[in-house]
Specification:
By secondary structure, this protein is mainly alpha-helical. It has five helices and no strands. Helix 1 (about 5-35) runs antiparallel to helix 2 (about 40-65). The longest helix is centred in the C-terminal third of the chain and has 37 residues, at about 130-165.
């Protein structure tokens, strides 16, 4: 296999994974923004959902240029399965600890996307694709900002759960 072909295949793989993970984020945020028991967490989830939907569309558009469709491979598949499973348990049982776990898995997905965005930024710089570089930079910043907000909400939720168990 030539280096150029391997490089193109790798870029396609990176976009497939980013699209698949972003789809999981959007789906989980949509569900949690309706069912999360903490009102401020619901607001934070709803607030970042519009941006994450827009980022998903951008990933699909840029991915199409590299023949990526969002094919679910090992890492994205494992993360999706974990997200779906924790979300289903939370919805079924309604326990705070289950919603806490689903919230934590979503946060991990968003952090994974920050890593992916960093790689895409470097690929865009190396290929001198300024449009992709700018979009990936905005994507990385958006994931970082919403991750901070969701991490704060998760920490506050942990305190609420811990205090409720002492009462």
């Amino acid at each position: 296999m030539s280096g150029a072909k391997f490089g193109a295949e790798f870029v396609t793989h990176e976009f497939d994974e980013a699209i698949a993970v972003q789809q999981s984020i959007v789906d989980a945020q949509a569900a949690l923004s309706e069912s999360h028991p903490v009102a401020s967490a619901k607001r934070a989830l709803k607030s970042s959902l519009a941006d994450d939907r827009r980022f998903l569309q951008q990933l699909k558009r840029f991915g199409k240029q590299h023949e990526a469709t969002g094919k679910v491979e090992d890492v994205a598949g494992g993360l999706k399965e974990l997200m779906d499973s924790t979300l289903a348990t939370a919805k079924k049982d309604g326990a705070d600890s289950d919603f806490y776990e689903a919230h934590a898995v979503l946060l991990n997905l968003k952090r994974k996307q920050m890593d992916s965005a960093g790689a895409v930024i470097k690929i865009a710089r190396a290929t001198k694709d300024t449009e992709l570089r700018d979009a990936a930079t905005e994507f990385e910043r958006g994931q970082r900002e919403s991750s901070r907000t969701l991490a704060k909400e998760l920490a506050d939720y942990a305190v609420d759960i811990a205090q409720a168990s002492r009462a």
